[in-house]
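Please fill in the sequence for the structure shown.

STRUCTURE ENCODING:
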């Protein structure tokens, strides 16, 4: 199960997100790239702030929204959306369902490993989904014919092969920040 959850780790998703940004810039899709940055900032920012807040102010079953699930929803959702915009008929559905299955598998792995509660996973997915929706809504030129998919897909495969299994332990840092704020007082009032 750990090998499945590793597909949602920051060590893998941050380079994938950077590759998507670079791909958009090289393809001349500056507006979409800007919306990608907005979506990344929204997703990572909200999840990060909530992780710090809930570390300072625990709230029952909510200890920390699932960053794996949320960030995976944004990154793999973007890749699935890119594939779906190019696909025709049945293949469009395959791209969207396949992306959804990858995201759902990562989210489920967090539950099976005991890393998060169902509500924490749902909140992470909600944040990632809202960030993806913001991107798709804001970038009306999304899916333009100028975007060759092969470079992005090749880069994604290389990143996944090289970085799968690596881990960034950002949550420990965010929880330490929350505990510090709780000791400092006034955060949870």
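FILLED IN BY: designer on duty
SEQUENCE:
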């Amino acid at each position: 199960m750990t090998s499945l959850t590793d597909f949602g780790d920051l060590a893998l998703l941050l380079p994938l997100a950077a590759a998507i940004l670079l791909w958009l810039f090289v393809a001349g899709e500056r507006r979409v790239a800007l919306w990608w940055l907005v979506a990344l900032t929204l997703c990572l920012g909200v999840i990060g702030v909530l992780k710090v807040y809930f570390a300072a102010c625990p709230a029952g079953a909510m200890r920390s929204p699932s960053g794996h699930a949320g960030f995976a929803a944004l990154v793999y959702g973007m890749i699935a959306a890119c594939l779906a915009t190019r696909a025709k008929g049945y293949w469009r559905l395959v791209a969207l369902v396949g992306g959804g299955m990858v995201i759902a598998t990562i989210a489920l792995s967090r539950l099976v490993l005991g890393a998060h509660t169902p509500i924490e996973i749902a909140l992470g997915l909600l944040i990632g989904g809202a960030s993806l929706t913001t991107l798709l809504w804001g970038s009306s030129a999304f899916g333009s014919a100028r975007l060759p998919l092969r470079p992005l897909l090749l880069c994604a495969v290389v990143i996944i092969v090289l970085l799968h299994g690596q881990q960034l332990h950002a949550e420990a840092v965010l929880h330490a920040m929350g505990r510090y704020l709780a000791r400092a007082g006034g955060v949870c009032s």
